[in-house]
Amino acid sequence: MTxxxxxxxxxxxCASLATVALxxxxxxxxAAPPDHVGGIPVPTAASKPQQSPGTELTWRLNxxxxxxxxxxxxxxxxxxxxxxxxxxSNDLRASxxxxxxxxxxxxxxxxxxxxxxxxxxxxxxxxxxxxxxRMVPHATLTNCTQCHVEADPAHDVPASLAVSTFEGRxxxxxxxxxxWAGAPPTMPHSLFMRTNCVSCHGEFGYDGWRPDHLxxxxxxxxxxxxxxxxxxxxxxxxxxxADGLEDRAWGTTTATTTATTxxxxxxxxxxxxxx
Amino acid sequence: MLTTSQxxxxxxxxxxxxxxxxxxxxxxxxxxxxALPLLDPNQSGASLSWHKAPCRFCGTGCHVMVGTENGxxxxxxxxxxxxxxxxxxxxxxxxxxxxLYGKDRLKTPLLRKGGAMVPIGWDxxxxxxxxxxxxxxxxxxxxxxxxxxxxxxxxANKFVKxxxxxxxxxxxxxxxxxxxxxxxxxxxxxxxxxxxYDDIDACDVAIMWGNNMxxxxxxxxxxxxDRRAQGEKVTIIDLTTRRTRTSELADHVYLFKPHxxxxxxxGIAHLLVKEGGIDREFVERHCNFRQLGxxxxxxxPPDMLGVPMSFEEFAKAVEPYTPERVEELSGVPAxxxxxxxxxxxxxxxxxxxxxxxxxxxxxxxxxxNCIVHGIHLLSGHFGKPGDAATSLTGQPSACGTAREVGTLxxxxxxxxxxxxxxxxKHAEEHWNLAEGRIAAKPGYxxxxxxxxxxxxxxxxxxxxxxxxxxxxxxxxxxxLERNFLRKKDLADKFLxxxxxxxxxxxxxxxxxxxxxxxVEKNGMYGNSERRTQQWFKLVEPPGEARDDAWQTIAVxxxxxxxxxxxxxxxxxxxxxxxxxxxxxxxxxxxxxxxDINVDERLxxxxxxxxxxxxxxxxPYQEYVRARGLRWPVTxxxxxxxxxxxxxxxxxxxxxxxxxxxxxxxxxxxxxxRALIWFRPWEAPPEVPDAEFPFWLCTGRVLEHWHTxxxxxxxxxxxxxxxxxxxxxxxxDADRLGVRSGDDVTVRSRRGSLDLPVVVGGRGNPKPGxxxxxxxxxxxxxxxVTLDAYDPYSKQPDYKKCAVSVTRKAATLSACAxxxxxx
Lengths: 275, 822
What we know:
The complex is a heterodimer.
Chain A: H1 2-25, E1 36-37, E2 40-41, H2 71-74, H3 82-95, H4 118-122, E3 126-128, E4 131-133, H5 198-201, H6 251-254
Chain B: H1 10-30, E1 49-54, E2 63-69, E3 72-78, H2 91-94, E4 110-113, E5 116-119, H3 122-135, E6 140-144, H4 150-164, E7 169-171, H5 178-188, H6 198-202, E8 205-209, H7 213-216, H8 218-229, E9 235-240, E10 242-243, H9 245-248, E11 252-255, H10 261-274, H11 280-286, E12 287-291, E13 307-309, H12 311-318, H13 323-330, H14 334-345, E14 351-355, H15 357-360, H16 365-378, E15 388-391, H17 398-405, E16 411-412, E17 416-417, H18 421-430, H19 446-453, E18 465-469, H20 473-476, H21 480-483, E19 494-499, E20 511-514, E21 523-526, E22 531-535, H22 548-561, E23 579-580, E24 583-584, H23 590-593, H24 598-606, H25 620-625, E25 629-630, E26 634-635, E27 641-642, E28 674-678, E29 694-699, H26 715-720, E30 726-728, H27 730-736, E31 743-747, E32 752-759, E33 764-765, E34 769-773, E35 801-807
């Protein structure tokens, strides 16, 4: 045990030595930060790209600071093609999911161990040829293969094992509701584990889903989360509606989201209490 | 249930029309039809509704939100209101809804007639079962499951113990949790963990004892490792026989020799004694020391509850387990043992041990469970948030149904034992039975039961009819040839199987009963942290499939009709008599089964048993409102019901006396103290030799749940993990001249199996060891495994036996093949 205490002490001493050595190597005191470390420029306040007003209010949650993307790459699909690209993106999303809301399967081989290699591409997002690695929308969850598994078509389900007859619910494909034409749409999905908007709506997000104002990064300033997708909300379970054609008569459905009475033996909806 | 008014007012109609027009315009604009179903103006998605349910799979007991639409499950979400999983699920849980929709669901009763399975009606099927049992009640055994819902298990238990007056019922937790039970009984005098999952949020050190938590309890593992992403420090120590995904996220990985766990834990006890790591105040106030007594004779093991020993004797017993000696026995470097000794010694850290099948599927399972409880008690790392010894379960209701309802051959509901005359009396009172109705002699435990079922009746095979519900012994019994397949040639044996898919067990079934599953019926489960959960039926089962509990109840009633009076209580009333407002409800008739909530009736009757061992359950309706409640659930003065998180700890457990600090109120020694056991390291029953030079370990993988009957019918999971394989160390693969994808034969004294090799996959065994998962019914590794079991828990050891591995002659050149997943 004494041996161990000693070992810890030695380790601590080593660590402080290393700090001293590093500081010496950098040739200065902590008060004057270096502009280069190992030949790599260190971003400073002055070198940060100028952003449009308002971006200091970056909505972060666990979001890495969105980078500024030039307009051409930010929104390559112009308005005329927007509907088609939305449909394509919806199809693409659906092809990797058993139902809307299911964790997507992994459309490429992965390392069986060291799942953190996932982060090499997915922590920031990446474009390589025609393939895109999307940024992780839930950065605090670290055990990737818990929910995401490989989908190798070579291992498709053989007829002998009988395929599933499950038909999953699909996204409607509509955007969020708008209070009037031109109003910013509400979010058409839950924010649970989707707190990084950039994941789908940023540079490496989906065609047709990128805003024309990617330089603005405080998303919830204008786009409100929609209560009907939030499990903790009394409005949970009210389905999404068409873009700009929102039916505001929610009262007709919320009245029914109460638990059925004690003796009923069939399905009862969860009793929902307001936060 | 969402019951949106179908009347469409004019305003809504106008909007919907506009919407449809916009949709059409969008489609036309895109120059193609939209591939996704857009909102149907006549439904507008309003029939989608969300309901709570616990996940169907493992013992973690995550809560899911089940989205149903048009009578089908169409989506799943993690339930954010649930304490257990806080909205997160694993890949199995996210796809749990798909488990209902495999194309080959069993939809009608089938009877074997001259080698073929012929569809029959339910009346005939129930009649066949009833007559078969009635002809020889003593030769009948139920074999159930930790996936039975609580009411299903309770009905089956009552059917056998009250209705037939035998104890011939056992369940698959015998293969899964039995050693954890004997460990708790030996240490605390009462089953189930004192701690809860909240310990995961509070611990500083997590020790994985042969437990690949990253794959087997992924949601709990994330609950632990995701704390790091929040800036907290959690030290994870992985004690394992092979490197796994858990090792990847561990701070220290110590690979030990099979069976070395006993030496490691004793080594920690040694250091605690030697280096002042004992929490003297706690031990002096709350613990006694214990060891096994002498063997009564050569063949009988010593009594499980042992004999007292002094602290000095204990210290002397652990004296030989020096770090260096432990290194020899276990292969873990002495420095690693010292590190763990130091962590247990420190009072400023909260230490949480986790284990699952590595400890339980062990010929010394009771011993290793006891030793680890012992080092937690010795060091005082007990009963405070984060200081816990946590035994995790594999099945959703191994605790709730098997252990609490007592669907095992030696138990009665509520943790009562058939061998205890007082306990039998309690049961006779609750069930209104004549005195002496409940048999004192335990029935046969799982391995013994199937051994006898697979032995000719004339040669002592006195089990002639087995009714299997919700489990798959045709794939999970160890040494399958001996313990399952021999039945094939025994004409007088009769196997009844209630299941949802054609399984390996069904291959030998004489009568198949199609069952409803999960949200196709009302149900209740109990998870690893004493949490009892409830759900309602949400969709109809397919075809003629019906609830397992109904099947049991219908057979019971049919036996009454046939004049079998055992199915009546001492007042002459049927055991499952159900009435409302003085009027009997014929629940034995399927069309009337849901006229009343049978689950509620059975649970509220069962609940009375839970008081005897302070495992108090609340009334059924409390569970309807909650995301599960952890027992003991006690009623407050204001009438509300309060769950208990830390059992035996004064600050939380209402049954602990004031000022006591801790009170083990079911103590073996009747003095409110827990027992700290000494159990020695001993050699395993079968060790590798020249002929069978490898250790074989079997286990699970993330994507599949146990025998894969559900998960292999889910395309996303099947694609990720299509078939079984054998993991080899690279050196062994080189020596055998094989590489990933090559076929080898794994052979033991009992059987053999051909498997593709994986080298450097998600698990990496040490040289001289191999690992094979058991999910694949096409490659049943249990043809190879050993059926030796722990003398107390009777749980077989699936983790250790000796095998040979030989290259298949027909192996092709390696470059032509794709390596299997692994």
